[in-house]
Amino acid sequence: MGIFSRISDILRANINDMLDKAEDPEKLVKQIITDMQKELTKSTQALGKAVASERMVEKQYRNACAVSASWESRAKAALKAGDAELAKKALASKVKADEDVANYREMYETISNQTEAIRSQVEVLKSKMQEAKSREAMLIARSQMADTTKELAQSLGGIDTKSSFDKLSKMEDKIARKEAEAAAFSEIMGSGKPEEVASFEELERNAKVDSELERLMAEMGMNATAESSASVNDELAAAISALESGGETAGM
After folding, report:
1. What's this model's pTM, rounded to 2 decimal places?
2. Which of the pair, 69 or 151, is modelled with greater confidence?
């Protein structure tokens, strides 16, 4: 069984165990991330050991190749010197070195393939780890929202909504009555004033118009008649008389 299969089995077992215990979802998600991080650390350490073994065997393989080449060079030198027996001895050593070369090459290829497989599995685990971390915040947020919704539903379930709304309706009626009373009182206390104020404002405007007329006629060398002033005075006196008679009538 490969290391990645073992990691998957461990994670699956841990998740199933926690689900069976019905733990807090937030704690469950955090625990899953923690377990994955531990397994990723172990896998990374295993990859480091595999790479170290691969490099060691590779070095032994290269040394065996160098030894084989060295014995071949010696055999060639012996033949050049005319010593065939010495050349045969050198070639015998080369044959033994070649066996080591074959063994180390096979070992190196095996370890290299295993190391590459572990490296791929670690990369997959890293990717899964990143995915899990990305989903962690979302899952926790969903869990908290579910808890909030549940608590709100439970709170509303314990409230007598009909009684509460009846109380609000009664309070609304009382406030409406108070507002109506305030409006009526303001209307009673303020009756007659708008018309009186409007009358005085109109007289003041007329007086200003006549004053402006007199000023303009004076500037133009024209004589202003007294009729305008008299008219204004008559209107003012009539308004005051009307107000006084109205006050006496109200007193009677």
Report:
1. 0.45
2. 69
